[in-house]
Design a protein that fits this description.
Layout: E1 2-6, E2 9-12, E3 15-17, E4 21-25, E5 28-33, E6 43-46, E7 51-54, E8 56-61, E9 63-64, E10 67-68, H1 74-85, E11 89-96, H2 101-115, E12 125-128, H3 150-158, E13 163-168, H4 175-184, E14 188-191, H5 198-207, E15 211-212, E16 223-225, E17 228-230, H6 233-238, E18 244-248, H7 256-266, E19 271-274, E20 293-296, E21 299-302, E22 308-310, H8 315-324, H9 329-335, H10 338-343, E23 361-364, E24 370-375, E25 378-382
Parallel strand pairs: 1-6, 2-7, 8-11, 11-12, 12-13, 13-14, 14-15, 15-18, 18-19
Antiparallel strand pairs: 1-4, 2-3, 4-5, 7-23, 9-10, 16-17, 20-21, 21-22, 23-24, 24-25
Length: 384
């Protein structure tokens, strides 16, 4: 079956194409062309002058739609993936927060089974913890951190091929060997919940920790100990060429000035946008079922107001937030599609509107609201 999307502003790797069409056959993009004449026999989708952009890649989200991946059920995995899909995330890497290893094994089994289904938006598992610095883990991870154990992480990795990324604190004993092992298996090691300073970050990068999770959050910046001043993790990551970062661009975790600073210093090629969403994302905050948390000001907080607990964002929110911060729309789109696709190793089939890539396409109106979502050639949402 041939589908043709016409009459829109198409975002391509070369920039905006203001007149043209996207041709889809089955699950793939057949062509992106500067001709918008309707083809005989094609199913026509009229974009009505809106933006036709690549599907978003959700590379760090813990939940949404009332469910969390730590529930370790097919229902939870499917519900969260479907929730983020309706907001433009045509690909997702389910994120399991710091958990016991029996649960990690269970989640990996579910993720692999769903990933292997035809047309699945689930691409692989992302694990955050439990190898985290307890001083930086926060109240939500209290009691859920542990020392690095070579046997247990190797047993998990050897039992599945669905783990795509694993976050840890690089200053922990054994962390560098952990990163080297993950990298040898094609798994992305990322630093997270850390207080590492420059020398430790350089060593971590050389060992394979090439990505920084939720940059600025759960890591120190420039600070003082007694009479002397020291660079923090933030400055160390900035100074490490080639280390990529992710920003929780929900408009709450980081102010617009910091979003713009990170974008300016690291650049589009090294910066991606993540939701870091909790189960309360896309629920209007009506189902808070944990007394530790409250929903306030559009974000989830610890009930004692000691810190933020997590985001309620979806991927479309990230794009709008960055544009509101003064970042060009094209760059905001690249940071939620092209860059995460490359970081997560799926750029051969995801992240941009190009011939032979998966037909993962989002149509945004002029206010950057989702109007249609096409995932692997199938329109799962169409409000045109």
């Amino acid at each position: 079956m041939l589908t043709q999307i016409i009459n829109g502003h198409i975002f391509t790797p070369q920039g905006w194409l203001d007149e043209g069409s996207v041709l889809i056959r089955d699950e793939k993009i057949l062509e992106v062309t500067n001709c918008d004449l309707a083809l005989i026999g094609a199913q026509l989708i009229d974009a009505k002058g809106m933006y036709i952009v690549p599907g978003f890649i959700c590379m760090h989200a813990h939940g949404g739609g009332g469910h969390d991946f730590t529930e370790c059920t097919e229902e939870a995995f499917r519900t969260v993936a479907a929730t983020h899909l309706m907001h433009g995330a045509t690909s997702i890497f389910p994120t399991l927060s710091s958990s016991p290893f029996d649960k990690l094994h269970q989640a990996a089994s579910i993720c692999q089974r769903l990933r292997d289904e035809p047309g699945s938006p689930i691409l692989g598992l992302h694990i955050e913890g439990p190898y985290l610095n307890p001083k930086m883990a926060g109240e939500q991870f209290a009691g859920q951190t542990k020392e690095i154990d070579e046997k247990e992480y190797k047993d998990l990795v050897e039992s599945t091929d669905t783990i795509s990324r694993w976050d840890a604190s690089p200053e922990l004993p054994g962390a560098l060997d952990f990163a080297r092992y993950l990298q040898s298996k094609g798994i992305l090691p990322a630093i997270s919940h850390t207080e590492a300073e420059y020398d430790a970050i350089r060593q971590a990068f050389d060992a394979g920790f090439t990505h920084a999770a939720h940059f600025y959050n759960a890591m120190p910046g420039f600070h003082k100990r007694r009479e002397y001043k020291y660079e923090g993790t933030v400055e160390s990551v900035y100074l490490t060429d080639g280390m990529t970062i992710e920003l929780i661009a929900d408009g709450r975790h980081l102010p617009p000035t910091i979003l713009k600073l990170a974008y300016t210093l690291k650049g589009v090629e090294n910066t991606c946008l993540v939701t870091d969403a909790l189960r309360y994302a896309a629920t209007d905050g009506k189902i808070v079922d944990d007394p530790r948390y409250i929903i306030e000001d559009g974000v989830c907080k610890m009930a004692d107001h000691s810190s933020l607990a997590g985001s309620l964002a979806t991927s479309d929110v990230l794009v709008r937030t960055m544009v509101q911060a003064g970042i060009p729309l094209g760059d905001a789109l690249r940071m939620v599609s092209e860059t995460p696709a490359r970081i997560m190793g799926v750029a051969d089939r995801k992240g941009s509107l190009q011939k032979d890539k998966d037909a993962d396409i989002v149509i945004l109106d002029k206010r950057l609201n989702i109007r249609a979502v096409c995932q692997r050639g199938k329109f799962v949402l169409n409000k045109m």
